[in-house]
Amino acid sequence: MSMSEAVTADALAAADQIIEDFGHHHRDAYFARFSPQATFMFHNVGRRLESREEYEQLWLEWESDGFTVISCTSTNRRIQLVGSVAVFTHDVETVSEVAGERSTSQESETIVLSLTGGTWLGIHEHLSMRTNNAAD
């Protein structure tokens, strides 16, 4: 395996761990995989979240309403390396529950990771609604 392939594999493993932690509602482990300065943009939130702490506070509010992630499935995956930055894009199907009511969402997501001190950490996450397009 070349050095570039190894770096790509490490970045992909970091993205996979973010998805794994999210999909099993491992809140603390999930947030630990993001830089404290990370930003977040979600279609269901009316503003950009300017830090990991801001997102953590919102997550706690969601949990107080009974929010739990049941599963998260990643497909149509691609990772691009640009120096010490990796851009991971994929389609994601998330099953969650709020106050006992289960729902499934179909979304597209970008996670930007930065290699910091030998560890890949998320520095930005963007989640958009995915539409089914017959031309796909």
Describe the protein's architecture and organization.
By secondary structure, this protein is α+β, with helices and mostly antiparallel strands. The chain has one domain (3-129): Nuclear Transport Factor 2, Chain: A (Roll). The protein is built from 3 helices and 5 strands; from the N terminus they run H-H-E-H-E-E-E-E. A hairpin with a 2-residue loop joins strand 2 (68-82) and strand 3 (85-98). The N and C termini lie far apart (33 Å). The mean pLDDT is 94. This is SnoaL-like domain-containing protein.
Number of beta strands:
5
Structural category: alpha+beta
Globally, the shape reads globular
What is the CATH-assigned architecture?
Answer: Roll
Low-confidence stretches: none
The first-level CATH class is given as Alpha Beta
- Distance between termini? 33 Å
Side by side, the strands of the main sheet go 1-5-4-3-2
What is the H/E string?
A: HHEHEEEE
Structurally, the number of domains stands at 1
Organism: Cryobacterium levicorallinum
Protein name: SnoaL-like domain-containing protein
InterPro entries: NTF2-like_dom_sf, SnoaL-like
Pfam families: SnoaL_3 (PF13474)
Structural topology:
Blueprint: H1 3-23, H2 27-32, E1 34-42, H3 52-64, E2 68-82, E3 85-98, E4 101-116, E5 119-129
Parallel strand pairs: 1-5
Antiparallel strand pairs: 2-3, 3-4, 4-5
Short description:
This protein has 136 residues and is an alpha+beta fold.
